[in-house]
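Researcher: For the annotation table, I need structure tokens for SEL1-like repeat protein. Please keep the output clean. Sequence:
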Amino acid sequence: MRLNKIITSLMVTSFMLAAEPQQQIADAKAAFQQGDYVKAAEIWQSLAMDGNTMAQFELAKMYSMGQGVEQDALQAAYWLEQAASNSSDFAESARAKKDITDELAARKAQQDTSVIAPAPASDDVTVPLAEVPTTAIAAAPTAPELQPAVEVTKKITTPVQATSNPDVIKTQTVSKPKQAELAVLPLVDAKFDSGLREFQRKNYAEAFSHWYPLAESGMADAQFNLAAMYANGYGVSVDAIAAAQWFSAAAEQGMAQAQYHLAVSLANGIGLAQDDALSVFWYRQAAEQQHVLAMYNLGFMYGSGRGVPKDDTSALMWYERAAAQGDIDAQYIVAERYSVGRGAPVNITKAIDWYQKALEQGHIRSGYQLGQYHLQGIGFSQNDNRAFELFSRAAAQGLIEAQREVGISYSLGRGTRGNDAKAVEFLELACGEQDQSACYYLAIHLSEGRGIRADARRAAELLKLAATAGNRDAQFRLGNLLSQDETASASEAHKWLKLSAEQGNADAQYLVALQLANGTGVKQDDAEAVKWYQRAADQGVLFAQYNLGFMYGAGRGVAQDNEKALYWYSKVAEQGDADAQFNLGSRYETGRGVRQDDKQAVYWYQKAVAQGHQRAVANLGYMYEKGYGVSLDERKAFELYQQSLDAKVPRALTALGLFYKNGRQVKVDDKKAVELFAMAAEQGYANAQYNLGWMYEYGRGVSKDLVKARDLYQKAADQSEPLAQAQLSRLLNP
């Protein structure tokens, strides 16, 4: 990470031991509340440069408001971009922008005179969606780089050749440096090394007295060091214009470091009129001399289309050159670009290589990304254990997304032994930073009382928070909970389920279809139900596939289509669903939607019977009784009928009744036969009604009753039962 401005109060580095991220966050918040904005900014700066998203958001606000740091719209945009790129919570980015806009509006109302450099309105704070890393402009040098160099050559280098692309070259007149404001030595007495020694002793006026005449005489190193003094206010008043003038003088002589700082000044409009095209020119001059930060910023300029036409290929080239020289941020950016194919075709191998190089230098987010690759099996064999190790390292350094993943890992026992208490610990950390996925998993623990006391109310609040933020799993879970709560609104449940379904949650799509088919919480609509069943079925939801088969078979919401019904039933049956196997057997037995095939019917009935499907047991008994698709076996049929009694399948009850009536495979038992016929007849089964009528006509197993016999014959005859029609005709026409 690096700063984007030369002039900043944060150049003074503190070498104190860093506190744990959570403690540092608490300290920053406390300092801000007490009005110590400088301290708050220093803490946020440290955390932000380590990749802490919350700190990046807060630092963006401070730069925008000028609290604890000099007000700087570009710095604000830079850190807001960093945070938005690093965060999975886009709502937080929007809130940060709103905070900035609201505060600016409040300040404007309080001011009677205009400020010199107002922060931009929220629309000016753009947040690129694709590029995670740095921006803006420029990576200004770290503190040591801004001080006069300890080891500098006294040789005045010749100017480098101008770029071969004249379109990026503009001219900007730089006024002559102002007169010395401190006493200076005659040129003959001025010594560069003497000035350096005085500077190191903090005798800035003495250093100035040596360097100023040397700078005026054309010594590039002296010019650069004077620029640094004006930029930082060492012994002189901070003067951005004078700094830019001396940077320009040294840059014209080919000094790469000066060219870089001149480009920074031009890009940010510091001491010079803002000029992106000319900034690109000077970045290129420095980059061609292997200046790493210039390479990096040149990559940014091409990537964002500032001063040159937007060109991702050129952006990647310059980022990769900076990465090759060890720039950690460039290494991360190059990895990101290869991972998504920005500026070059997707190359996971190269992405992994650059992530690993950045990780070796301690880049937290690179470790997190590699953890995701191991978790998902991208570029590596899928390895939950390695993913957990990488997530844990990043989590220990305060990366919110890594804390979430560690929490999820403990919750699911993914890559580590399950530990609900530790899961809650990490999920609380990430949820506290508004990571909605973490809040979702924490809600599950709260609702189930895992690792924490059950708290249905807080669980519901977190689910709704995550659902409102757009987390589709939270939307599904909330909708499902509401659909099972008799006191809750069915339409509210449907609303959340549909939101989740629209984001592609397959289970939500199935439930939405079910609600539409049944008119639960929404107007009944078979055609719409079929659409959602189809989406869920395409994602492999078994019940959706089965119900889609039913809708096609019944012609509900679509034209009746037995072939499509058969297709979906077959798909489900092949996955082992007993109901689908039974339905498929029934279709093969009757030839409905498929060529009639008794052997296939028996095959699928047997599959369903193996899973205890009672109706399939009954139908298989019938196949054995008749010898359809199998060798005729009345004993086997009788046993299967007996097994299926609890299912009360009319055909099986009637067949078993006939076994008892006729004494087949069992001793004749008319009362048992009547009992079985009656159970089937009550379900409207015509053949059972006929047989029960016959028992009443002849008084077998019951008292003879011709009226009941006639009534039962009539019911069966109305269903076109031929034997009943014949018996009824005989009774009515003796």
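Researcher: And a one-line annotation?
Model: The longest helix spans residues 90-110.
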